[in-house]
C-alpha cells in the first residue's frame, strides 16, 4: 500500500479558508496513494489558541467536507488530521477524522491527552474519553494525537481493541524533535503496530517552530520514510502484511503477564 504524508504549514497570516484551498492543491499531487495523512489542527492552526472558538467546526464543517471531496477525487482514504470540533453541547474537542474513498467518515478520535505545557489546548479543549478501532484496507486502524505519544497505556488500549495501524496527526515543536523520533519508533516496536505519524511544519503564533519529520515506522522499528522540515508530500510504500509477519515471527504481545492473565481486567487474548 502507498502512503502519502502531507506536512502542512499554518502561518498566522493565512485564513483557514485560504489554507484549505492551498492544501487541496497539494493533496491533488498525492494521486496514486491509498492513504493520505495530514497533521493536527492544520486548518485552525494548533497554536492559534485565540481563534479556536471562531474556527471550531462540526464533522459537517468545511475541513472534513474538503477531506471527503479529496478522498472521492483521489479514490483514496484521507486522514484529515484533526479539527477543533464543536460537539453537540458546545464543548470543543481536538478530533481526528478518517474518510474512506467514497467520502464516508469511517473513524473519529477525540484527543485524550490535551497539552498544557506552553500551550492553551488543555484550558480550551475538552479531553476525549473513548478509543475506537475501525476495519480498513490497512488493517484494523486506530488514532492517537500528538501528545498522546507519551502515554503508552493509551496505545496498549488500542492494541487490546485489535489495532494494527495507528495514525498520529501532530503539531510537535522542533524543540523536542528527539522525543518525537524516539516515541514514534518506541510505540511501533513496543505495540507491534505500523505507526503513520504526520507532523506540522513552519512557524505559528508565538513564533513556535513545528518540527516536521513526519515518519512511517514499522513494528520492527524500521523507519520506512521520514520527511524533512519543509511543507509538502512524502511517499512511502508499505507491505500490508508487515504487522502480522512481525507479530508471528516475534510474538511479544502473546507473552504479556500483567495484569495477571486470570485477574478481572487481565490481559485479553489477542
Ligand atoms: N500538540 C501537542 O500535543 C504537542 C505535544 C508536544 O509538544 C510534546 O509532547 O512534547
Describe the structure concisely.
The protein is α/β, with parallel strands linked by helices. It has helices at about 15-30, 50-55, 60-75, 120-125, 150-160, 175-190, 240-250; strands at about 1-5, 35, 75-85, 90-100, 105-110, 140-145, 165-170, 195-200, 200-205, 210, 215, 225, 230-235. The strands form three sheets. It has a six-stranded mixed sheet with strand order 5-4-3-2-1-13.
Please supply descriptive tags for the structure shown above.
about 25% strand; about 270 residues; 7 helices; UPF0012_CS; 6-stranded mixed β-sheet; Nitrilase/N-carbamoyl-D-aminoacid amidohydrolase; alpha/beta; C-N_Hydrolase; binds the ligand NC(=O)CCC(=O)C(=O)O; globular; CN hydrolase domain-containing protein; C-N_Hydrolase_sf
